[in-house]
């Protein structure tokens, strides 16, 4: 188990730990939560690269979010059922790749606890071809890396503010736009013979 604080005294960064230590971290988090009712939206960052997770968390904190970071999907799935105040999850597996993010998304959507399976998820991917699969699997927002800080904050804000009853129709529209874009990109012009 390792725990770090950034120079601003922000909440601990949880790398990996046993379930008993997760419980202790969560108790401290709940205590802080009850003291800050009406505070900033809370976001769980899931990234297997500590440097990438720290960079992402710092961007989000500057944007006004309270951020907790975990280094793997199992820890994220252990934290989510115990935390009611999480506004969204950002999944970015820098080392394992987009496939790991899709597996986490699938685990979230198939979880029996409503606090988990109804969670809003933003997937950051290095590969655009994973985007359609992510939308089909139930993601709420996607972002292609590299990205600008403004794009990250805008995508997260839109995801969190989207009405619950619009989430499914929004996914369907995104899939439709991506499929239509692929058709247009793959359309082959009819070759013409040039006579001279």
Could you please describe the fold and organization of this structure?
This protein has 196 residues and is α/β, with parallel strands linked by helices. It has helices at 19-35, 50-62, 73-79, 98-109, 114-117, 131-137, 149-161, 167-186; strands at residues 3-4, 13-14, 42-46, 66-70, 86-91, 121-125, 141-144. A 5-stranded parallel sheet has the order 4-3-5-6-7, with helices on both faces. The protein has a two-stranded antiparallel sheet with strand order 1-2. The relative contact order is 0.11. Mean pLDDT is 78; it is low at 1-36.
Q: What are its keywords?
A:
7 strands, 15% strand, alpha/beta, single chain, disordered N terminus, 196 residues
Task: Offer a quick outline of the entry.
The chain is of the alpha/beta class and 196 residues long.
- Succession of helices and strands: EEHEHEHEHHEHEHH
Largest sheet, spatial ordering of strands: 4-3-5-6-7
Identify the quaternary structure here.
single chain
pLDDT averaged residue by residue:
78
Number of helices: 8
* Total count of strands: 7
Largest sheet: 5 strands, parallel
Q: What class would the helix/strand composition place it in?
A: alpha/beta
Q: Percent of residues in beta strands? A: 5-15%
């Amino acid at each position: 188990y390792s725990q770090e604080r950034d120079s601003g005294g922000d909440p601990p960064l949880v790398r990996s730990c046993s379930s008993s230590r997760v419980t202790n971290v969560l108790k401290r988090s709940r205590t802080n939560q009850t003291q800050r009712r009406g505070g900033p939206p809370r976001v769980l960052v899931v990234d297997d690269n500590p440097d990438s997770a720290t960079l992402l968390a710092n961007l989000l904190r500057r944007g006004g979010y309270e951020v907790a970071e975990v280094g793997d999907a199992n820890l994220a799935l252990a934290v989510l059922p115990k935390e009611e105040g999480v506004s969204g999850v950002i999944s970015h597996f820098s080392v394992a790749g987009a496939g790991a993010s899709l597996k986490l998304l699938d685990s979230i959507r198939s979880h029996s606890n409503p606090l988990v399976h109804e969670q809003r998820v933003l997937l950051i991917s290095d590969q655009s071809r994973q985007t359609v699969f992510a939308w089909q699997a139930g993601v709420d927002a996607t972002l292609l890396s590299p990205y600008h800080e403004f794009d990250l904050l805008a995508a997260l804000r839109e995801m969190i503010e989207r009405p619950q009853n619009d989430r499914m129709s929004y996914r369907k529209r995104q899939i439709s736009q991506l499929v239509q874009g692929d058709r247009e990109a793959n359309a082959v012009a009819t070759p013409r013979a040039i006579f001279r």
